[in-house]
């Protein structure tokens, strides 16, 4: 029996491990097939709703760490800000950092960035993570993120590129991973709500 969208989301959100900064394989291959088979778009789907639904599938695949499948979806909506944001994260996860920042620029001041900035700043303010980190580039970058007014996706790209060099501590890597997790969750929450608004008459 095919899983419904709700069950797929539940499985992705309840996984015990956060998405890797640089995934080497799909998290759940069977789930990826279920995502691909979701009948989100049909002949009767309003044309205006299609970009939001494609973005939803791009997000689901990326939460499952299926970079190629997510890329295939986001490439279909390169004029859509949400599609551009997912596109950028996909390239960042594959280690193509300059291309990631190109797509983040195309996404512009995405609506999900406001809630994301608030969430990340609150976490940095109220957790002990900054005090636990050794002095250095990652700690300094997180301090900047805590104080900034608007989320800057390239700042996270720079931190991930730095951790790829293998010169940062395990604590710093864990902090970056959690910030990425918050970014993925906030963008997906926005994407899901946007898809539901776009086709309010459907059962998504």
TrEMBL record:
Would you tell me the protein name for this molecule? Uncharacterized protein
Tell me the organism.
Paenibacillus lignilyticus
């Amino acid at each position: 029996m095919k899983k419904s969208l709700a069950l797929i989301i539940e499985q992705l959100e309840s996984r015990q491990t956060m998405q890797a900064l640089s995934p080497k394989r799909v998290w759940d291959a069977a789930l990826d097939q279920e995502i691909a088979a979701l009948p989100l778009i049909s002949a009767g789907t309003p044309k205006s709703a299609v970009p939001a639904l494609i973005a939803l599938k791009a997000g689901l695949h990326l939460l499952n760490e299926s970079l190629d499948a997510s890329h295939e979806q986001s490439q279909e909506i390169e004029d859509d800000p949400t599609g551009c944001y997912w596109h950028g994260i996909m390239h960042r996860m594959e280690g193509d950092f300059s291309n990631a920042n190109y797509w983040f620029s195309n996404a512009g001041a995405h609506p999900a960035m406001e809630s994301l900035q608030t969430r990340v700043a609150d976490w940095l303010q109220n957790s002990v993570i900054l005090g636990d980190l050794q002095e250095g580039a990652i700690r300094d970058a997180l301090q900047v993120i805590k104080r900034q007014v608007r989320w800057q996706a390239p700042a996270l790209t720079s931190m991930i590129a730095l951790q790829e060099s293998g010169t940062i501590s395990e604590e710093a890597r864990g902090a970056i991973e959690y910030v990425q997790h918050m970014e993925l969750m906030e963008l997906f929450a926005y994407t899901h709500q946007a898809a539901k608004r776009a086709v309010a008459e459907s059962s998504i």
